[in-house]
Amino acid sequence: MMEHCINCQTEVDQNYCPSCGHPRVLKRIDGHYILHEVRNVLNFEKGILYTIRGLSIRPGKNIRGFLNEDRNRLVKPIVFLIVTSLIYSLINTFFHFEEAYISYSGESTSATTSIFAWVQSNYGYANIILAVFIGFWLKLFFRKLPFNFFEILIMLCFVMGMSMLIYAVFGLAQGLTGLKLMQVAAVIGFTYTTFAIGQFFDKGKVKSYVKTLFANLLGMLSASLLAVLIGALIDLIR
Ligand SMILES: [Zn+2]
């Protein structure tokens, strides 16, 4: 009797499904599996460390490669942004480096304050929302280039994830040494973002980096403006 693929129900007579490539029999989890998983995380040919290295050295080229050639070597972009944001929040819970450079004032009961408080405790999701805003301006500024809005969003997940890591590393260093490093982190983070996105769009042109800079600023500005507006509207209704 013919067996059926566990993934797509196609009839299978070999070790792998001819239609979707899924193995006919899934091997049981054993010591080899665990070892293989650990090696995948730690090796430099793919996985998280490979992703971080690739995004540090040639962000533009590597992200283009992810979009057009190979989606297995870099980790999944949205997962990457959420994980790096979690690392950032975790380090911040231990060292509280954030109060030193981000502060918002206002009545503690206002809706706007609640919105910004939510942003601070949910960087992973807040970053994805911010990416939508920055992505909108980038799409507008680079509309002649062949990237659609979703490809730009995916690129932003990688770049913003890296800048979360930069903040996390400097936050950790500040927590351990007591030196005031978060302003340095802000400069490096912003420079990295501009450099990485500019390189992604058009490596050789200065204009590409200038447009990136403005799209970033406008993205942050429009997102905060909308948050303030929604907050004010809620307060008005209450
Ligand atoms: Zn199948």
Bound compounds, each kind once, are: zinc ion
Structural class: mainly alpha
**Count of the domains:** 1
Strand count: 2
Mean pLDDT: 88
Estimate percent helicity: 55-70%
Strand order of the largest sheet: 1-2
Number of helices: 9
Ranges where pLDDT stays below 50 over 5 or more residues in a row are none
User: What gross morphology would you assign?
Assistant: globular
How would a textbook summarize the main sheet?
A: 2 strands, antiparallel
Radius of gyration: 22 Å
Topology as a string of helices (H) and strands (E): EEHHHHHHHHH
Distance between the termini: 68 Å
Task: Work out the strand percent.
Answer: under 5%
Structural overview:
The chain is mainly α and 238 residues long. The protein has one domain (62-237). It has nine helices and two strands, in the order E-E-H-H-H-H-H-H-H-H-H. It has a two-stranded antiparallel sheet with strand order 1-2. A hairpin with a 6-residue loop joins strand 1 and strand 2. Helix 3 (59-68) crosses helix 7. The longest helix is centred in the C-terminal third of the chain and has 32 residues, at 206-237. It starts with a strand and ends with a helix. The structure holds zinc ion. The site of zinc ion has 8 residues, from loops.
